[in-house]
Amino acid sequence: MELDGKVALVVGGGRGIGAAVARKLAEAGADVALTYQRDQASAETVAKAAGRRAVAFSADSADPAAVAGAIDRTVSELGRLDILVNNAGAFRLGPLEELTTDDLEQTIAVNIRAPFLACQAAARHLPAGGRIISVGSNMAERAAFPGFSLYSMSKTALTGLTKALSRELGPRAITVNLVNPGPTDTDLNPADSPDAAGISALTALGHYATPPDIAAAVAFLAGPAARYITGATLNVDGGFTA
């Protein structure tokens, strides 16, 4: 229970990796708030399964007011904020010539602007020992397939944000880190899809991760053992980028 007494907000915590992160932080003792965009029932189930004080509320990460509002609501309902996990993401793929301005704007809004605004709002509340952890993608380091130009660009931006904020918030004893998952078995990227065997073959371990694999890394960075780690990127990708 090394996070006992802490409050965490998982942005995009209603399903997949985000849901696993919310559960893992609760198992470690934290009270958890999580946001969702569409699936209210799933998000509420995750919150109940967390077992401690937990709330789920709708927030569209493409809406700047909703992002800041998620921070304020967490503090209002759970009393404080110690850990911010930026997990929401937009996944727009396609050949360069077919991508639209809407694809570009949506990707930037969710994958770049939302984490920035969440960090900005959270910094007003985080105490010494606070944590900011963003969930990116190993596609920021290895664009292994065609069609990932927007997605890879946006996830690469999180590396710069993480490094810069680690310097800015370090004097306040707040750490800022990035977890880059590789292929992970979720409803959006199932390990039994037709392409999964080829993707698995690109990893050193030969198989997909599970959401709890990624959640374990996030929980480590949120805990006291990681107090001297900041500005770092942790690839949890089975050797995909090795």
UniProtKB/TrEMBL annotation:
Ketoreductase domain segment(s): 6-202
UniProt xrefs under Gene3D superfamilies: NAD(P)-binding Rossmann-like Domain
Record-linked SUPFAM superfamilies: NAD(P)-binding Rossmann-fold domains
Keywords linked to the UniProt accession: Oxidoreductase
UniProt GO molecular function: oxidoreductase activity
InterPro entries, sorted: KR_dom, NAD(P)-bd_dom_sf, Sc_DH/Rdtase_CS, SDR_fam
Family: Belongs to the short-chain dehydrogenases/reductases (SDR) family.
PANTHER family: OXIDOREDUCTASE, SHORT-CHAIN DEHYDROGENASE/REDUCTASE FAMILY (AFU_ORTHOLOGUE AFUA_5G02870), SHORT-CHAIN DEHYDROGENASE_REDUCTASE FAMILY PROTEIN
Protein's recorded name: 3-oxoacyl-[acyl-carrier protein] reductase
Organism: Paractinoplanes atraurantiacus
